[in-house]
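As a warm-up, study this chain.
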Amino acid sequence: MTQATNHLSPVAQTAAATNDLRDIKPPVDIPSGWAWLGWVLGALAVAALIFLAWRYWQRRRAFVPPAVVVPPHVRARQKLVEALALIGQPERFVVAVSGALRVYLEERFNFRAPERTTEEFLHELGDTPLLSARQKESLSEFLTRCDLVKFAKYEPGEPELRDLHGSALRLVEETEPTPTSVSDAAGQSALRNPHSALA
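Now compare it with the structure written out below.
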């Protein structure tokens, strides 16, 4: 305070002190009436991004690639090829070859081959028109020869094992569906359901 203000009363001194120069206050922001709209739009954008990310994750998790259906005759051939690696072990080889053929016949013709004994299976086979008489006879001989190895502990040589393998492979080749039978089946299905053919 200056010397002139020392002679003033305390009230006058306070008033004089308040008239001293002070710094300028910074500008005061006056909120716009549209500020709330920016906050709402920002919140909606964040919510939309979260929702889209969740949907993408759900679809990706739910997507299961379609299973590749391998026809029974293709699977049987693969198993018969794999069985050749066991040709040095007659019993294991015969089990693999006869198992491949039994599973093939079950899948191809709906026979209950794997769970039945050879006698039961051959009895069921006798009534079916799905195999020719020659194929039934060949299958009967094949299964009987396999049973000798599996149950009577007969140990055939490699030529006989290869002959068994050839019999199984021949039966698969003779009974596999032909392209004409597959297209005929598709045509008959389309005749039964004409809307599926137009779809």
